Amino acid sequence: MSYFGKNIKLLRKRRGRTQDDVAFALGLKRSTLSGYENGVAQPGLETLAAFSGYFNVSIDTLVKTDLSSLAESQLSQLERGYDVFLTGSKLRVLATTVDRDNEENIELVSEKAKAGYRTGFADPEFIKVLPTFQMPFLSKQKKYRSFQISGDSMLPIPDGSWVTCEFLQNWNLIRNRHAYVIHTLNDGVVFKVVENRIRKDGTLMLHSLNPAYEPYKVHVNDVREVWKFINYISSEMPEEGFSNTVLAQQVNRLREDVEKLKRGR
Hints:
By secondary structure, the protein is an alpha+beta fold. The chain is built from 10 helices and 9 strands. It has a 9-stranded mixed β-sheet.
């Protein structure tokens, strides 16, 4: 069942717009818009995209979610652009490659390739020139990619390590205090421990394992991809004596952060 007609009518009225206003803005006849709202006419893909852009709501949400069943707080979040709050599944087209057996490759995004990946992540021509490999023990039903990390913010995982991650379509499934590769157009690819604040204020709080680095927020509107950490490969051994002391500091710091969040609620 499609909720498109009743949804656009609801959103139009919440904005205080008449049918004439919306029809004019989208280059439609008022009778055509009336037909969509009453369910006697069905829009094409281009028209769906136009309504999606006008209301700043994904096509999936306009068609599949009954907005009239949502709480006022949810509708307000939606209208402020936090569509991921409702479904976690805005249409995200993932450029990918397959091997000669038509099985998903694991592409390698090296440190040098990160600059191009920042804008070329959705370009099949860019993705297909990345080196690829296979890990036979990983699920063939999921999509994986490996990113080379740099710096010391995620010690004890050494600089230059390759972290293999699973593509995460539904951002509401981001688990607190788990590691992810987060790709934003502003900061590029970063590997962090994530605190999911999407339901609260539409953000992700990114933490480093190295306590020398302060956590920081990114808004989901700035996020382009989320990849869940699976494993890492490194040619270096972790530094001797690092684990017990520093890992304890990391755990204590995360506990303090959580306590601060609880007190602020």
